[in-house]
Amino acid sequence: MDNKKGQEKLDKIEDENLSDEIVNNLEDAIEESTNSALIRQNKKHKRKVVIISLIIVVLIAILGIIFYILNNPRLIFTSAVNNMFNTLEENVRNVRDSNISSAGTIDEKYNNSISTFNNLSVSEENVTPIIKGVKTAFLEAISSEKIVGNDMTIKVNGRDVETNRVSLVINENNIDDVNDKFITNLKNNEDFLNAYSKISDYTKDEIEEKLNDLSPDNYISPLTISIYTTGITREFVKLEISREVNNTTSVINITKLSDNNYDYKVVKPNESLSGTITFNNNDIIISYSDYDNETVVNQGTLTVQRQY
Question: What pLDDT does 187 receive?
Answer without folding.
Answer: 92
